[in-house]
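Summary for the steering committee. One of the milestones for this cycle was to obtain a three-dimensional model of the protein with S-adenosylmethionine bound, which we needed before selecting residues for the alanine scan. The sequence and ligand used are listed below.
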Amino acid sequence: MTVENWEPENARSWTEYGRRQLHRGYVPPVADSIDWGFWGESPGTEALGEVSGKRVLDIGCGTGRYAAHLARARGAHVDAIDSSATQLRRALDQYGNTRGVSFVHGDAIEYARAGTPYDVVYSVHGLSYIDPDRSLPAIRDVLRTDGRLVFSVLHTNAEGVGPSASVRPRTEEVRLSGHAPLPVHMWVLAPILWEELLIRHGFDVEGIEILAAPDAGSPVRCQLVRGVRARA
Ligand SMILES: C[S@@+](CC[C@H](N)C(=O)[O-])C[C@H]1O[C@@H](n2cnc3c(N)ncnc32)[C@H](O)[C@@H]1O
């Protein structure tokens, strides 16, 4: 499979996932903090720093709950983009009238390339699905100098398979009870690889934190990655 095929298949799977969620009528709870892992315990919204009055971009916003939270509770001006029309439909259905948020359907990286500068770019489990050599240069260019990039990505999956030691996507599954799993191609990379990629593409790395599930029986781990656009 060529690189060109990985991301389109991800888009197809997320479109089907959103369709299934719309069909079953599942609406996730309103967020009062950003959950960078999957468990409701993580450094929360504070990981972004001060966002009041700032221009913020949410990459892979899904249901839009974190974008709406940042606009409503933190006074941010958020552009929230998702390439899945059905995921975006879920966001519009619940938060389409929220002041301070603009929802956009499209590829986040094409959007960033054409965008006006942001103070903060963040993504909660969105950047795992995009080739980092495509995403990171575009994000750097759309950030103001000293602008922040904060994102969470998968580190160890539910089967206990840890991150890859080379910058290549691998096949994982998106699961929803009662349905066949959907194939996705994810960049599940060792922290040192994310660090090298960020530096190569013009970021200073503030830190990479491993987030573990509070349930000791779960092998799932995530990374919370924080960077700042480097000064030229
Ligand atoms: C795991 S979901 C996370 C959704 C949301 N951030 C959350 O935490 O609830 C990943 C999302 O990223 C979106 N996505 C993947 N690749 C994208 C791209 N190139 N541009 C925009 N969105 C993308 C998917 O459609 C999906 O909705």
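Key point for the committee: The chain has one domain: 3-229.
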